[in-house]
Amino acid sequence: MTLTTALALLGAAVLLALLAHGLWSTRRAAARRPAPGAAGPHERVEPALGQLAGPSDAELPSALAAPRAPPSRMPRLDPLIDAIVPLVLETPVSGDNAMAHLPPTRRAGSKPFLVEGLDAAGGTWEPLAAGRRYSELQAGVQLAGRSGALNEIEYSEFVQKIEAYAEAIGARAEPPDMLEVVARARELDHLAGPLDAQLVITLRSNGVAWSLGYLQQMAARLGFVPGAVPGRWVLAAAEDGEPPVLMLSVAAQAALAEEPQQAAVRECTLTLDVPQTPQSAEAFPAFHRAATTLADDLDATPVDDQGQPVTLHAYAAIGQELERLYQELDRIGLPAGSAAARRLFA
Fold first, then answer.
1. 3-class secondary structure, 109
2. Per residue in 101-128, pLDDT tens?
3. What is the pLDDT of residue 23?
4. Cα(339)–Cα(343) distance, integer angstroms
5. Coil, strand or helix: which one is 305?
6. In the chain, at which residue ranges do the beta strands (DSSP E only) sit?
7. CA nearest neighbour of 250 among 233, 225, 262
């Protein structure tokens, strides 16, 4: 092999690697808090383009029947991603009383927190429900999220809310040391942050613009249905209540036009939120199929975030990188699509 040929092959390999990297979109640089100790927003907002909302913290009332396990999609405390505070009770408390005194909002800064009870009859921990009696309670605040690690201000706010709650129901709160909790939060954020990835492809028209109606028609052929937000279509998961497998979006201006059927768009974005979707769902093959099919149907070119066309070789490289991410998430105890992963990467 001549030196010229070797250099040409090396250059091609470098270009392929750069193209594959361009498909990846991570939240770490944009979403992590710039300064430790600065409290985040107190209210959750509808996710912006390309974001996915985490599981709801709504609690479903239970019947007065025998103990039962709560639905798996209901958020539960997890020692891996929550700082847990025991609430010591002198006597059992009813679920109605425990729920009546909950803080109006279960957030400390940008971090959600949950309260669970140990069912006196069944001996299992569960989200609070009316008609039950609990011999013990515990509260937990999430250590990290896409807004960054839990900081001192957020933890102090959480402790204040939980101590006030404990006093209202006749319990005693036993919060862990702040410095230890914040150190755990930063460690989790450092460990999980590099694994918080999304696959994003933009389909850019090669000629005429599309109406929203036509785009929806093409997406529906692949199983996409309208989402909760105008201009967003989702490929639903196999089970109700789970995050969508894929999302197709257009610019908000077009989606909110007074006559949406006449709104013209020249590009749309296909997104796969990796930590939110289990590997068993085969989301990447669905992503690849949707991107290539829509590109053909819409006469569009799939491009990465640098505006470079996406090739078959790039898809292959991304598939290999995705496999590595799934393995890393498994290794740290946060398998993609698990309840803990969905909460952490929400």
1. coil
2. 999 999 999 999 999 999 999 999 999 9
3. 57
4. 6
5. coil
6. 24-26, 82-89, 93-94, 107-108, 111-119, 125-127, 133-142, 144-145, 148-149, 171-173, 197-205, 210-211, 225-226, 232-235, 246-249, 264-265, 267-273, 300-303
7. 233
Side-chain-side CA neighbours of 77 within 13 Å: the count stands at 22
DSSP state of 107: E
Dig out the tokens for 17 from the structure: 């690697």
Tell me the whole-structure pTM to 2 decimals.
0.75
To which residue do tokens 């010229």 refer? Answer: 4
> Mind listing the domains of the chain with CATH numbers?
82-192 (3.30.1400.10), 196-344 (3.30.1400.10)
Place of tokens 């609690």: 59
What tokens were used for 38? 């600065």
Q: Residue 255's CB: how many other CB atoms inside 10 A?
A: 17
**Which among 104, 167, 90 has a CA at the least distance from the CA of 134?**
90
